[in-house]
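Archive record
______________

***
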Amino acid sequence: MTDRSPLIRVTAMPADTNPYGGVFGGWLMSQMALGAGSLASRLGQGKAVVVSASDFAFPGAMAVGDELSVFGEVTATGTTSMTVQVEAISRERNSEVTTRVAEGTFKFVLLDEEDRPRPVREATLSRQRENDNG
């Protein structure tokens, strides 16, 4: 985990809790979607919109004040799509203790200026190959 750079980092606030006082799973998913979307649009060199979210698990819990870091990587590319696997790690506010609190997969479609699906550019594929090789 320490060798990776987070796609997004944010602190959970009281408004982010569910009726039971824990951090709301929907808030976690939205932060993960923001991080994954940032990666997809950067690598895709343009607009990338979520078309599906799947395989979500919430193996841990986080509290108000904890810091959430979202990490992700492109695991597949299609003609016009990109699949991003995401992991969310919580760090306790006043310590270095971390917990994996969520994981899931987002699929994005890249869009052109008229909001029509467009092909994944070769630069994206080259960058992904470089990441896969080291």
